[in-house]
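Why does residue order matter? Because the sequence determines the fold. Keep that principle in mind as you read this record.
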Amino acid sequence: MITYRPAKFSDVENIHKVLNDYAKEGLMLPRSRNAIYENLRDYIIAVDANNHFLGCGALHFVWDKLAEIRSLAVIPELKHSGIGRNIVEHLEKEGIARGVKMFFSLTYQPGFFSKCDYIQTDKAKLPQKVWKECVHCSLYPYCDEIAFVKTTIDYEPGEILL
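Structure:
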């Protein structure tokens, strides 16, 4: 049985390892321990019945009714198991409960987000608030991540003040 729960301080090393192992492969951007600690409330993790870490993801609120799905990773031996999709669903459910109307992700894994019903979009269409943390990235301003968005069923065009 897999459980999805909020991350704790004791999860930081596992989160850091899985994210940065994938970053070394060029599959995602790295995250520092400091960034994980500072945003620990954003993270949920998946654990098995023995409380072994299986994966993580974060919901980062950016602006009014706008949130980013980020730092999504599943341990390599469980890729394609559905855990990543379940993490996204849990994060979306939390976001909707808080009033989010649009989710976005910047990713190197476009196929995954397409399967989660996200639509590829031009990064330039995202509000500048999205880029506030990007200035600290080594790839800035030449970001090569792909932007995806997903709106809620009750989203109305123009509702999010971009």
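The chain has a mean pLDDT of 90.
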